[in-house]
Amino acid sequence: MLMGHFGLVLGLGFLLAVVRSPEAAAQQIRSATLADIPRLVELAGRPGPRSLATDEDTSYLTTLLEQPDTLAVVSETEGRVTGGVVATRHSIPGAEPQESIYTIEWLRVTEDPAGAIQQALLVEVVRQAAARGATVAIAAQPG
């Protein structure tokens, strides 16, 4: 899935470098559930690299969230989902069988000029991946 993308591998050092902003502190971060999918698909309709929400988004997110090794978290403010991130686990070619990496498959947030929501979501995914003995790769489309 990283073909045509560039990636940045993050580890625990990233967690230590993050400064929590007031916006991030207002967010409640929790595990995503299937019930969150309609709101996450709604967020996919916001302007961005992929700005059209479709039935395929619903199917895609459902498939990802049903996988046992998937990490999926959402942010909430006052009970409303304001963002979500989904990462899937992959083995590292040539590495020990227990070594793995999580890649960010899906990340969308509401209006977030300071990046606080996105940052809070990514910090939580990195924390959960580290707890499972893995690293996180964040990929972004160029341009």
Question: Could you please describe the fold and organization of this structure?
Answer:
The protein is of the alpha+beta class. It has one domain (6-140): Aminopeptidase, CATH 3.40.630.30. Helix content is 31%, strand content 31%. The protein contains 5 helices and 6 strands; from the N terminus they run E-H-H-E-H-H-E-E-E-H-E. It has helices at 12-17, 22-25, 37-44, 55-65, 116-131; strands spanning 6-10, 28-31, 71-77, 80-91, 100-109, 134-140. A 6-stranded mixed β-sheet has the order 1-6-5-4-3-2, sandwiched between helices.
Based on the model shown, name its key terms.
globular, Aminopeptidase, disordered N terminus, 6 strands, 31% strand, 143 residues, six-stranded mixed beta sheet, alpha+beta
Compact description:
The protein is 31% helix and 31% strand.
The fourth-level CATH homologous superfamily is Gcn5-related N-acetyltransferase (GNAT)
Low confidence ranges: 1-20
Q: DSSP strand (E) fraction?
A: 25-35%
Largest sheet: 6 strands, mixed
* Structural class category: alpha+beta
The CATH class, by name, is Alpha Beta
Label the CATH architecture. 3-Layer(aba) Sandwich
Q: What name does the CATH topology carry?
A: Aminopeptidase
Q: For the largest sheet, list the strands in their spatial order.
A: 1-6-5-4-3-2
> What is the β-strand count?
6
Shape: globular
